[in-house]
Design brief:
The protein is of the alpha/beta class and 268 residues long. 42% of the residues lie in helices and 14% in strands. It contains ten helices and eight strands. An eight-stranded parallel sheet has the order 6-5-4-3-2-1-8-7, with helices on one face. Helix 4 links the parallel strand 4 and strand 5. The longest helix is centred in the middle third of the chain and has 17 residues. It is globular, with a radius of gyration of 17 Å.
Amino acid sequence: MPLEADSYVPRILGVLNLSPESMVQESIAEGDAAVAERAGRLAGTGADWIDLGGRSITPDAPTVSDETEQARLRPALALLKTPDSEHFRDRVSVDTWSPATARFALEHGADGVNYTGGPLPGEMLDAVAARGATLFVTFMPYADAYAMREAKPAPVGLQAVLDHLGPKVEAARAAGVEELVLDPNLGIIHPTTDDHQKIHQQLGIIWNLDALRSLGCPILLYAARKPERLARIMTASACLHARADYIRTHTPEMIWRLHGAGTGAATT
């Protein structure tokens, strides 16, 4: 399927991690100067959103409390969402599974919540609706990524994703959330899943996005940060060929280079 630049242009979430325990070292920024530099580089290479993360989902990463997560987010939000700041960014989201942190982020200027938790609490949905923020809702059949470490593997696959996200869409709409984006979750996978299963599971979702679109919302795919360069390129290319409405990535420049290559346009 050819990519046509004039008919398909994804929106990009660029990852900025405030968590030193995160696995992708290049995404980590500690301190105002590093946050400003990373956010500027993401925006300069084509990110529409700066997606802030305050703790890692890596299975062997140390656990981090809501209070620590919020303490990490506070200065970054102040830097990026103060209107007269030279580092102000129009669209900043916060990646969290904590409803309390989600509300904290909205109170401190976040434009979106990239919610990676299980249930959608009413208080959080009300806060998103009142702010007029964007809610990115993830397929997460566990309470959160920490709980997943000790839980038995939950059912996965297209039907499991549809069964899980359908009620979340209904709950968000009932609460008045207007900007709703669905993430079938290519990144937060049970730690017992081996590499063969993981890739099979991820591609099974990517190639069936039309079924997810039946829920009536834009779709976000994570261009997973695979260890091998060619695997990263192939995953990002698959997200583009599936025409994801949003792509979350550590490297926006890779997405746009692939997009240009697919259309025959000049690459950067």
